[in-house]
Amino acid sequence: xxxxLPLSRRRxxxxxxxxxxxxxxxxxxxxxxxxxxxxxxxxDPCPEWAxxxxxxxxxxxxxxxxxxxxxxxxxxxxxxxxxxxxEGSFDSLCSILVRHPRPVMFVLDGVRSVEAIEDRVxxxxxxxxxxxxxxxxxxxxxxxxxxxxxxxxxxxxxxxxFTVDETAALCRLFGLARDQRTIEWITRRTEGFAAFVAxxxxxxxxxxxxxxxxxxxxxxxxxxxxxLVVMHVVAAxxxxxxxxxxxxxxxxxxxxxxxxxxxxxxxxxxxxFLTALTESGLIEAxxxxxxxxxxxxxxxxxEVVHRSLLRVGxxxxxxxxxxxxxxxxxxxxxxSRPDIALEHAVERRDWRCAIxxxxxxxxxxxGSGSLRSLGIVLLELLPDxxxxxxxxxxxxxxxxxxxxxxxxxxxxAFPRSFETILRLGSLRMQGAYDEAMEVCDGLATEPVPNFxxxxxxxxxxxxLKYLNFGTVYLLGGRTTDAGTMLRRAHxxxxxxxxxxxAAGKLALLEALRGRTHEATRWIEEELRHPPIMGExxxxxxxxxxxxxxxxxLDRLDTGTAFRALSELGTLRHTEELWAAVMYARGRLAxxxxxxxxxxxxIDSELQHFSHRLTGISAxxxxxxxxxxxxxxxxxxxxxxxxxxxxxxxxxPARARLRLLGGDPGGAEVIVHRGDAAxxxxxxxxxxxxxxxxxxxxxLGRRTDARRHLQRAVVLAEHAGVTRPFVGVxxxxxxxxxxxxxxxxxxxxxxxxxxGIFREIRxxxxxxxxxxxxxxxxxxxxxxxxxxxxxxxxxxxxxxxLRSLYRKxxxxxxxxxxxxxxxxxxx
Length: 826
Prior knowledge:
Blueprint: H1 13-18, E1 22-26, H2 33-42, E2 50-54, H3 63-78, H4 89-99, E3 104-108, H5 117-125, E4 131-137, H6 143-147, E5 153-156, H7 164-173, H8 180-190, H9 194-206, H10 215-236, H11 238-241, H12 244-250, E6 255-256, H13 258-262, H14 270-280, E7 284-285, E8 299-300, H15 303-313, H16 319-324, H17 327-336, H18 338-347, H19 351-360, H20 362-368, H21 370-381, H22 391-400, H23 416-430, H24 433-444, H25 456-476, H26 479-492, H27 497-513, H28 516-527, H29 536-554, H30 558-568, H31 578-591, H32 595-609, H33 615-631, H34 635-642, H35 651-660, H36 664-672, H37 675-678, H38 682-698, H39 702-719, H40 733-737, H41 747-754, E9 763-764, H42 768-778, H43 783-790, H44 794-808, H45 813-820, E10 824-825
Parallel strand pairs: 1-4, 1-5, 2-3, 3-4, 9-10
Antiparallel strand pairs: 6-8, 7-8
Helix pairs in contact: 3-4, 7-8, 8-10, 9-10, 10-15, 10-17, 12-15, 17-18, 18-19, 18-21, 20-23, 21-22, 23-24, 23-25, 24-25, 25-26, 25-27, 26-27, 27-28, 27-29, 28-29, 29-30, 29-31, 30-31, 31-32, 31-33, 32-33, 33-34, 33-35, 34-35, 35-36, 35-38, 36-38, 38-39, 42-44, 43-44
């Protein structure tokens, strides 16, 4: 589904905009609350208000953690430093709002798991009219108490369903031409739930967009798609995932009460299970005349969800749905919870489906530990005619420890591609990228097939293989090899998720190189694909969003970068591209003028990923942290991070460290090494050239400075970037402008807004003799005149000059004089 739906939900925009204090949007997991808010925000409804968008927190978030996140995001939006105080995070948030009374609009998404959220929101509203709140939640909580009697507050909940016109608009957005009867049928069959309508549109586009469906065929497609979405919600909720069977059983009587829940099998704590159902938004309170409830609170599944649970929970799941749509296998069963899918297939005695799930999900099932336990059950129940000459069954026997008729263990029978993917996945999660690249090197020499001549299954298998190779090379830092493999994956993976994931990683690769035009092309290609249902979406989207942020930052568009990184939300500890996220967040913190916050965030996240601080991850994190330390004037900490590095992405930080620390000669040495050019990193080259220009100016070489500056302009225009021009100290602006080179940016206002690096006043300790020689140089003396004045030999003065030049980091008399004016000499 597209990230925003600009052609739908507009009838609710005026409702949100009209209530200036508080708008609470209530709805279940299928209502499209987040999409509604994202679409509304995309229209820039309140340009005078500073937006603070907080994504849905983890289900086990603590209040202190949540409000600390809100306070940090508020400081970023306001461009102020976060105070360090002994008070709690919520009190800190309030004090920030009081000290900086700018209009702020908080958008708090998915707050059902935040303790006492209603009370806290009420406290924020009492701070004054400069605070506005938009909240989404699955739980009704006590929001009505905050809204009742207030003319500028509202609850939106009953009007979230799509109308026929909105369904038609969404079909057009997906490129589907559908007649009015089909549109009305989809709306009625899905009851207008946004998540179901969008999933049906995605399914129609993935099938044959121009196909005309009869009523029966359309019902099959809609029902199977709805089943997919419902099962994903169950599988994605930690409180329900392990009780999925009980969720299905609970739908048998559509009215749910405490007594009916307590009678369910496999439920030890009926109160906890009922709470999990209500908080998930799957069930909603209802009125009932049924005497069996005996005064108990009654709950009900929405009818479309009820029908889906009955279908999936049936021992005889409609065969025509399996035949017509393999979405339950291809999406939820394959990419979200294949272990539950395999369990259901075994329960239905659908042996071929079970074997199909095993064959397509070796990695996920083996990695989760489910393959052994479920495989034992499967092998015990398989009919005899499916146990002979079956490679998959032989593999299961190996994994489960089953023995053949002679009593000997079965031989390993994994297909080679599965073995490779298993091993690469394990090595990547350990951070063993060098070893993983060796595995890829051994297989990458195989001839590349003509993908057009292969059947779909074989072609997609090659796409998945090259995607894994490309990811390994990307994480290992071999960018050229990564680009080659990812392009192959994009071609071979056409039509499945591999195509989108390869495009996103190619966008990230080009964005890291600073090739924004190429990165933008791949970002647009990645956005062409609809999101994937299930947890895989959270992993696949990372590369494209980070690339979007990096491209925006290279163009000094901090707003776009902030929105892209906000969409990522809290990083999962399984996120392979975590370091790229840290790198982008570090750059955003620099341009936002909050380096301390950026450094604090990265350092706090490192504890979760320190075991994978190798390959490109180590380079990106060190480069980000070094620049943040430099912005804080902490040269020693920056030096410890990057001084021994030779990677192009750390070159600007290394050169900047020497420039800011009063060593322009050392900065020039790094500029002249040409690492950026060798790795095809034009943005890095532009940044180095600009640093080289400032270094040459400080060494008194204006001709060299002009040459460096002209190169910086050419590379920046080629790459389409402007960020490199704010990576030097503001004190250098006048000198740069005096060179008379046309720049692609108005430097004065850009530095005023984004310039953050300041000179680091380095103290140089000289001996009395060295200090006397330096004073003589500043007075216009030469080696000969100094020798006469101090009654020493010329060789003695030359020795003292060499020692002085070394300490000052220069190579000539002129450079020493210029450097002495910038340093603190003691």
